[in-house]
Write a structure and sequence with these properties.
This protein is an alpha+beta fold. The chain contains four helices and nine strands. Helices cover about 35% and strands about 15% of the residues.
């Protein structure tokens, strides 16, 4: 009888622990979704500001990423033992890095910035590409960033055993910038876990609504978001991303 009671108590304790863990994970997931929604709203407002005041918009963009980063620290403190746990950026050991806040998996770059481009190495930090090829339609995504870089990453079994690699949106691209006010005090202004960075202009997948021949980008030398209205045919650096959730 005593053995039966002990077993029942152990089972009850296990169930309580399991249910508590599930509740914590549910809170973690809900917190991630809430933080992502707040960040998206903040980004939208900053884009509106960009139309009338470039400098004010840069400050607004920086505040968005600072708040998003702060949300992660709060989630980690509240949800111990869940997927809301440090480190935020985790090196996967296959030339990719997972951001547990956004759920995105990022490509790591290789070599030393400024050592020279090597097109045969898709991950060489000095390689740059065009957004569009400059034909009759200078707005569509048929430049080397898509037809060369991404096409190669997604060929066969895919880079790091996965397909679905793409350019990040302008909002996604800003999440790998250091959580600093604009301009960043560090150059390049990207998190160290992502490896080499050209400290230059990086393409996003987002077309600038005010001029469809231009696309949004980020200058990782200072952390500013900008619309490269000088044209999608211009050369720009790229870093691939895919969904990890």
């Amino acid at each position: 009888m005593k053995k039966t009671i002990t077993t029942m108590l152990a089972t009850a304790a296990f169930l309580l622990t399991t249910n508590a863990a599930r509740a914590d994970q549910t809170a973690c997931t809900a917190g991630l979704e809430k933080a992502a929604g707040a960040y998206a709203s903040c980004q939208s407002k900053a884009k509106v500001t960009f139309l009338t005041d470039w400098d004010k918009a840069q400050t607004a963009f920086a505040k968005c990423r600072v708040k998003y980063d702060a949300a992660w620290a709060k989630l980690v403190a509240k949800n111990v033992g869940t997927s809301c746990a440090d480190p935020r950026f985790e090196d996967n050991g296959d030339s990719t890095v997972t951001d547990h806040l956004t759920g995105l998996v990022w490509e790591k770059k290789t070599t030393v910035a400024g050592s020279g481009a090597n097109p045969s190495d898709r991950h060489d930090v000095d390689n740059y590409y065009t957004w569009t090829n400059g034909d009759a339609d200078d707005t569509d995504g048929d430049g080397t960033a898509f037809t060369d870089f991404l096409a190669d990453l997604n060929s066969g079994g895919g880079f790091a055993g996965a397909n679905g690699w793409r350019l990040p949106t302008i909002a996604e691209l800003q999440t790998i910038l250091l959580p600093e006010t604009y301009p960043c005090a560090t150059s390049p202004c990207t998190v160290s876990e992502l490896g080499a960075d050209a400290a230059s202009g990086y393409w996003s997948a987002s077309t600038y609504a005010g001029s469809p021949t231009g696309a949004w980008g980020v200058g990782t030398y200072g952390g500013g978001a900008d619309s490269y209205a000088n044209g999608k045919t211009s050369d720009g650096f790229v870093r691939a991303v895919r969904s990890g959730r």
